[in-house]
Amino acid sequence: MPKLLIDVIDDVGNCLLFVREVMFTALTSPCSFASICEQIWTVTLQSLPTTALAGFFVGAIMTVQFTLQITTFGALGYLGGLSTSGTVREVGPLLIAFLLSGKVGAFTSAELGTMQVTEQIDAIRCLGANPIQEIILPRYLGIIISSFFLLAVGLVMSIFGGMLLGLVFSGINPEEYVRHIPTIVNKFSVANGMFKCLVFAFLLASICTYKGYSARGGAKGVGRAVVSTAVLTMVGIVVFDWLTSLITDTAMNVVLGNS
Amino acid sequence: MIDFKNIRKSFGEREVLKGITFSVPEGQILFILGTSGTGKSVLLKTIVGLLKPSSGEVFINDREISCLSEREMFPVRRMCGMVFQQPALFDSLSIFENVAFGLRKHQPELDHAQLSARVKECLALVNLSGIEDKLPQAISYGMQKRVSLARTVAVSPRILLFDEPTTGLDPVTTNSINHLILELSRKLKTTSLVVSHDMQCALDIADHILVLDKGEIVAQGPPQTLKQSTHPLVQDFLREALNAETAH
Ligand SMILES: Nc1ncnc2c1ncn2[C@@H]1O[C@H](COP(=O)(O)OP(=O)(O)OP(=O)(O)O)[C@@H](O)[C@H]1O
Ligand SMILES: [Mg+2]
What we know:
- Chain A has helices at about 1-30, 35-75, 80-115, 120-125, 130-170, 175-180, 180-185, 185-215, 220-259.
- By secondary structure, chain A is mainly α.
- Chain A has one domain (about 45-250).
- Chain A starts with a helix and ends with a helix.
- Chain B is of the alpha/beta class and about 250 residues long.
- In chain B, the strands form two sheets. Chain B has a six-stranded mixed sheet, with helices on both faces.
- The interface between A and B is medium-sized, with 13 and 25 residues.
- Magnesium ion binds near residues 40, 41, 85 and 163 of chain B.
């Protein structure tokens, strides 16, 4: 048991050192703008349809769930506001981050892991180039920027999904659905959702590039890297979800208390 | 000039290199022979700092490099070129971009025409042409190995490290690659370290031969001296070379 604990601490420490190295490289010898754009393009294109679809159904689920409970209180008018608030603040970022971890995370760690075990990364080092600058940094920034963007698209789609399901399932017309959204969803909710998106994007980018880059030992090693990326990002996302909730709640209390 | 002083390297409990000492003067060709798994690849990787020795010192031009950090290694690595045992081509880049990769880093001042001329020239050195636009997956293993050779030679390193450059290639290409190594060393004064199983070729072009067994040097010297060696492993290698010669 202590051995396992030591391994975990070791891994987290190495991951933090890796992230520090990436940040340091970003500041001292940044990669080309074109290579970042290329990565943003790849990641976004790869995941846009899935994220949009998932977002749509997240909104739909929220609406269905809330309808059952709200009708008992005869407050169907608040359906739109409530389900959008729930989606924007919590469920949207969480579920979409899960989805991206399966897609972008697995893809990136498998790609980098393969480059590592087939000595492509050593070849870059031998040609006098810095692999962090050449291949990690563009992916890292690309994943953060496009994950953030994808999460935002997912949120918009979920509002749309909720609206449509509200119309079909609960018979609320869209105009009524959106009417109470501004009452319940305020700028803090949106800021909260965006903050979570950003944190999850950082987490995902850090874990999948680190795991891929540190893969060793042939095809098996790549397999292990992908599995631990999936597990770690999921666990990490849940833990950080709780942490960010704590932070934003405290922050909101302070802001509201002062004004 | 490369100096190895009592290099040891362990992976966990297992000691792979057990105190290796030798030196290679500038412009010379050193062949490293040995059976599979004796640590030849590990030895080459310690020179470019891809692996750190557990103890001992590596000097390149009288500079100790085994204690340098990854960052400090970048300029050192620009002097060295390494051809890996696997082709290790960048599989998302075309053959042209693969060969051009190092050139873009080392000589950013080259314009597109110069770059493309140099890439063509290097591919021609390894008997390849007309495959610049292909992806690595689309060419055979032997061709990939030759492209990886071209990629390394392209940046004109002062020190060349070859990890079994001709294993798995046909005799014609093997010959021309051995010829290329000889020519680079004679014309450009490049120092070359070649890991190989081919004793015949070592006797032909090496200035110095090193025979490794289980992480230790069992015999070394110029080809003439080595031919007199009585060590059983060296004898085996020599017999193999002799057989190949009589078969011709
Ligand atoms: N990164 C590593 N981690 C653990 N063990 C390693 C590592 N690299 C090499 N070894 C071990 O070191 C030993 C020597 O490996 P090396 O690749 O140098 O052999 P080699 O002499 O190049 O053999 P071959 O002719 O088959 O290429 C092997 O037994 C291998 O198991
Ligand atoms: Mg080897």
